[in-house]
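Sat 14:20. Reprocessing the chain from the morning session after the first attempt stalled halfway. Input below, unchanged.
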Amino acid sequence: MSPPDIMLKSFVRVVVVVTLLIGAGPGNAGAQPSGAPGQAPEAQGEFVPVSELPPADQLRAAPLLITAYAFVWVAVLFYVWTIWRRLNKVEKDMQALARRSTAR
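Finished this time. Tokens:
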């Protein structure tokens, strides 16, 4: 296995672990129903806007959304960086080949 492949696999493992740790944080554990433990929550009789719900009943998707966007951007930047490195290597090989062919 070449060093870039090993580096890519290590990077992917780190990103997966960080994403799992961020997703499993205390704020993302899932909403607990209000009321006494073991009892079913009261049925809602009418529409209630999200802004009027208690914080325990509101969805906290913003951290997950930000994490997803950050993960995608990091992955795209890493992919572009690896392509850039490979293109530089190909250019150096082509220059070396051109020097060798003109020397003959």
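The radius of gyration is 26 Å.
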